[in-house]
# Entry
Amino acid sequence: MLEDLILTVLMTSVPLVYAATGELIVERSGVLNLGVEGMMLMGAVSAFGIAMVSGSLVLGVIAGGLAGMLTAALFGILVLGFATNQVATGLALTIFGAGLSGLLGAPLIGHAIEGLPVLRIPFLSELPTVGKLVFSHDLMAYGAVILVAAVAYFLKRTRAGLVLRAIGDNHDSAHALGYSVLGVRFMAVLFGGLMAGFGGAYLPLMLTPHWAEGMTAGRGWIALALVVFASWMPWRVLVGALIFGGITIMQLAGQARGWTIPSQFLSMLPYLATIVVLVLISRNREFSLANSPACLGRAFHAGK
Amino acid sequence: MIATPRPSRNQSRSVLLNASGICKHFGDFTANDDVSFSIGEGEIHALLGENGAGKSTFVKMVYGLLQPDSGQIEWRGQPTVIRSPQHARELGIGMVFQHFSLFQALTVAENIALALPPGESLADLADRVRRMSAEYGIGVDPDARVHNLSVGQQQRVEIVRCLLQDPSLLIMDEPTSVLTPQETGQLFDVLRRFSEAGVAILFISHKLEEIRALTERATVLRRGRNVGTVDTAGQSSKQLAEMMVGDSVGDIAGQARPDGQTTALLEVASLVRPAGTAFATPLRQISFAARAGEVLGIAGIAGNGQDELMEALIGEWRGRDADVIRIDGVDITREGPSRRRQLGLGFVPEERNGHAAVPNMTLADNALLTSHSLGRVVTRGLVDADATRAMAAEVAGAFDVRLPQENPMASALSGGNLQKFVVGREISKRPRVFIVSQPTWGVDVGAALSIRTAILDLAASGSAVVMISQDLEEIFTISHRVAVLYDGALSEAMVTADVTPERLGLLMGGSAAAAGLAAEAQA
Amino acid sequence: MISLTPRKEIPLTLTLMTPLVAIALTLVVGAAIFGILGYDPLAALYQFFIAPVSRPYQVADLFVKACPLIIIASGLVFAYRANVWNIGAEGQLILGAMAAGFVALTWPNLPGPVMMPAMIIAGMLGGLAWGMIPALLKTRFNTNEILVSLMLTYVAVLFIDWTVRGPWRDPMSFGFPLTPMYADAALISRVELPGIGRLGQLHWGVAGALIFALAAWFMLSRSILGFQVKVMGDAPRAGRFAGFSPAMVTIMVMGISGGAAGLAGMVEVSANIGQLQPDISFGYGFTAIIVAFLARLNPLAVIIAGLVVALAELGGDSAQIALAMPKVVTGVFKGILLFMLLAGETFNRYHVTFSLPHRARMQGDSDA
# Structure
């Protein structure tokens, strides 16, 4: 029972890890993309549709990622090419993604598919408790951990990561050194879209085996809050996602056990927790600004 | 490597870079008009000109940041299109910018790595930086985070970063504008050593004495045009100044000094302000008084607390203690800017765009910015648009602000015109106390002259003026007394006429004790 | 590659043309998307933009649909002008409707002249209170108002859901999540013109919305309060220099936009529904964001922009009925419209030139 609960917590946090890690890279490059929710929805609907048509979950996941990336490209062209307001463009992306995903997904409502094959590791997955908790997840859950590790390594140890951080810190200087500010940012935005698409794909393929309009239910926004919570550090995203996964599952578990608290109040928990976390992180200015990219949200055009 | 000196070829130095007929336009504005320039290997060559003369535009083209509209650049005798800064660095051209281009959140080693070709590990690079730093006595720690470094240290990081690229031409854009005279001397020693090692140095400045001290030849730009190239040894500062400015240099005549002790209009007693962020300077026990009829200059290198002091005087930042700042004996320590203006203060902060003025608003709205609390233009919460327009037009008329159209956006004005407007906006209210920071920063000579005259006139009419300025020439030209701001602390105010630039320089560099000795030696 | 050169002056014609061109391009792109998805593009556009206003009473209904959008967007304009990103108007609308509903349900026997003003004030206070949470957290703890105001919207949706299923449910509702109907004094009446009679669903709240937008325009363009808002949004440092308090402006604009959203919630329920239920808003709080931008953050233009967007909303209904399109398709239009407007803004502020990548050289600035 407890093992199952922990497993569900882990699964609930997987899409958050993908979306938040992608957004972390975007923000480290100095761009604020508020359209995560829209990109996740596009990823979710595309993944579900392709998986249903092709019968292949792998193709579904790939389609979800690509759909997220394509949506992000739209954002990138506007924000980077046309130097539009990042906040407004991100909102537009969410509205657009919610609408288009609903339109595309209308024929998919009412259908169901089964989850990704669980990748079991021989022997290890048969160990008691540990085997079930650590070695018996689906591929994408392992992917999430690998992703965080890879992003942490990329930022800290690689030259490309250094360039990305430099551009987020001071785009004018990076430009003066000859780095392509807009080019790097566009790549970062695409990566963010790919990850949000993967995160979205996880929802209909793994968590609930069907598609519903607006099924992300604010997860994109929680992912944005997670980046702040993590103070732009990859490993902290993982911790934060687990906490949110735990809170989400707590409400479900609470309902199942017949807690007397009305279900609506339990459902509020993830949103209220986000607010509390934002307050706790933001009140300490020094801490929250230590890694916050200095150019976050500021438009760049060469020669400014 | 720089460390191994190249054979000197002082006789027939070959030409390293030769630019001819360079033109560059920005819209209708001509930044460079038929500029020609050449520099030989190991030569120290000055590019001299006023703010806005086209110096930065020219070197940006040499560094590949801009492309000329016409003209040709030859590098080592070959016609070359310098496509990008990377290309420039590959050719052997390095540049240290006027406004530092360092990444504040990164370490010194990371900053340097970004300017070098990939391949070297950060650890190896850090070792190289340590070695070079020891060799030249530059004192740079590769593991330090840049935002913890002083301005002078940051400049040294910039220089090390350039030198590690093994350049044959080093461009320095106004490197001394953030240094004390003593630091400047040290920098010049280092530059001379590089020159001996065969590195050519293109040194941009508008400070004539420096150019005469350091360089062999100077090319003078005026309004985007090449006025000529001269041997600096054969020229007096005055001759150079005339080349730079054109007509004979104007001066402010009839500078009346206040007689003896007049009443103190603004008194500041033990102003303390903790540093707000890692990048800010704390203010330490600042005390001074500005008297009726005088201009009190506050000298100092940028980043020693000027912004913080200005915010405290304007009231953008307010302390909690009583009786720290008083005007005419009235305690205003806890009052905001509006109340301070009502009591007769006027302010012009350093930054025009976005601080003293809102670029995307009309001049009338910008006039409203500092007069909304003074009655007349605002009644019962409603703005009298006609009155604000009239006010803006009046200021523009009285202070010779040239307008491209009636009531334009502030952003449509040139830097000098906008500065005249924001200074005039305050002076036209005849403030009892006028506090101004960098009144002529980035302003052409004509505008600077009229601004300085207006400041002196205001003082002569019985107001007290506090002028924060990093321009020593300005301090000596118009301030009656001067105090020096260093690391958030303010020195005693001294009568300007009794102070030598050397003593001021020592104070600006934090050598209060040495400055005291210099004063004694003088006495 | 796209390169941008700032314009010195923005021609008025360009300012006026931008929204029109944006709308036109939205129609073209929207038609293309319909075509790709296998709908007849022309039929779809007809259902969307012509069918909903093909009869006179339908034009009146257009105003009814635009009513909450105009009220909310008039308030949001203040927040966005000040660079405060309140995107939680939906939640503020719900709280406003609940506060007004509390008055209507607790004192059902209040006389009309007392009831209506009391509900208006309660509605505005409810929205204002919900808006104060992100405002105070921002000024006190530096939290991001975007995320907080949005999270509070989810909370508000759950809160009204609990209220109408729990404590406020009408015992006579046969288990439906509905409160009792409001008393007549708590309802906003329909407009009845002598000799013509009623015009569709047209109610007096529409007149209120128009007056509200006018008042907002007057306040923003003529009052020192509006000046504060604009300065703070354009150049916060200059705002502090002028003596304005960033915290006060944040609280003020969140209060105005929250209050406006709350008022819209009160009007919507009292004029169109007559009781509280889980769904009292069809995303008006989000749609109003687009209205505010379409109006280029000018409250007078909000009236026209509100009507245009309301047309797309009604069009969604008619397309749903006639072509079996999902209702969310209006979201596609809204998103594209907002994209077009934002890109149009760039054409306003810059000379935009396109070139092939290998020829694109960096634009430089003039000498410092």
Notes: The radius of gyration of chain B is 25 Å.
